[in-house]
Amino acid sequence: MSDVKKFMYVNRKAPYGTIYALESLEVVLISAAFDQDVSLAFVDDGVYQIMKGTKTDGIGMKNFSPVYNALGDYDITKLYVEQESLDERGLTLDDLMDIKYEDEDDDWAEKPSIKVVSRKEMADVMDQQDVLMSF
Question: In angstroms, rounded to a whole number, what is the distance separating the alpha carbons of residues 43 and 64?
């Protein structure tokens, strides 16, 4: 039996105004450092965490959004975005960052990390996890 557990971090909050999004990102990176199978889910206002063009100058907070582009370097390549959450906020996949990873099994081809799934598909993915942590 493998010691590698499947961890999914469920991001439900907007990226700024609370500490949840930044803390989630920090915990995700720590988990990956311990060779766990890490994935992220973006639901509800959590979809705003990976919007392209985020600027934080007006709120006096450091913009941590660029860190999402480095997730592939930590073998974090499964980012699930709930379609209904996008729809409810008037967003599409084109509004999200173009987060990619290099697939070493496919001659280092760049592949998208984000997969848009339905609410039902998201529930199925969550059921396959060993650990769910909600932020």
Answer: 19
